[in-house]
Design brief:
By secondary structure, this protein is mostly helical. Helices cover 78% and strands 0% of the residues. It has helices at residues 2-28, 37-60, 63-71, 83-88, 95-101, 103-106, 112-124, 131-167, 174-208. The longest helix has 37 residues, at 131-167.
């Protein structure tokens, strides 16, 4: 299931990373300079090739690390660990009904990792093929992986700004950091929102059964 969703996201993920690289290149080499078709083709082709490499690297990063980065937590980072608080804030959920139907998921004071495991097996798995759950799951994977790739791009650019001038006589245009930072923040926020929505959508779908 996970591999199928990631495969469906591959084109969109590739496009997001390629956009970051191509726009960064345009700022670096000056929009006025990049006026010829040949220059544009070289920049576009380089962005495409680098995007392919970054997609491969992003897919090699362990899921646990991606989740820690997205939710900025070292422990109990998955949104399912907080399914109780997420459902309390969602108007689609009848929280009293959820507590009555899955008491060992929504009981107070249980370990967050245990809560996530129970949510996964008791709530998510029976409804994992529901359209609303699939769409939210797919979106979470897309933005999570996009954030990982965009973060790699940002860190590579930062390294170039620190060492590139000495080693390669290369100084990044400051606008590159604004572009890459903005895209990374958007992907981070989207990943958090879609991750939380994925968890709550599963509860909402399960309540309808």
């Amino acid at each position: 299931m996970d591999s199928d969703l990631k495969k469906e996201n591959s084109s969109a993920l590739f496009l997001i990373l390629a956009t970051s690289l191509v726009v960064s290149a345009l700022f670096q080499f000056d929009l006025k300079v990049v006026s010829g078709l040949m220059d544009a083709a070289v920049i576009g082709g380089s962005g495409v090739m680098l995007s392919a490499v970054l997609v491969m690297i992003a897919n090699l990063i362990p899921h646990s690390i991606k989740h820690k980065l997205v939710f900025t937590r070292f422990k109990n980072e998955l949104a399912g660990c907080r399914v109780d608080s997420l459902c309390r804030r969602d108007t689609r959920i009848d929280y009293e009904l959820a507590q009555a139907r899955w008491p060992n998921v929504f009981e107070e004071g249980i370990d967050p990792d245990t809560r996530n495991s129970r949510w996964y097996h008791q709530i998510y798995k029976p409804v994992r093929n529901e359209p609303s759950v699939l769409q939210a799951h797919r979106s979470f994977f897309l933005y999570r992986d996009a954030f990982s790739g965009l973060l790699l791009i940002f860190l590579a650019t930062l390294s170039l700004s620190l060492f590139g001038k000495t080693l390669f006589h290369f100084t990044p245009n400051p606008m590159i950091f604004a572009v890459q930072g903005t895209l990374a923040v958007f992907a981070l926020v989207a990943a958090r929102i879609s991750g939380s929505r994925f968890v709550v959508n599963a509860v909402a779908a399960a309540e309808q059964d």
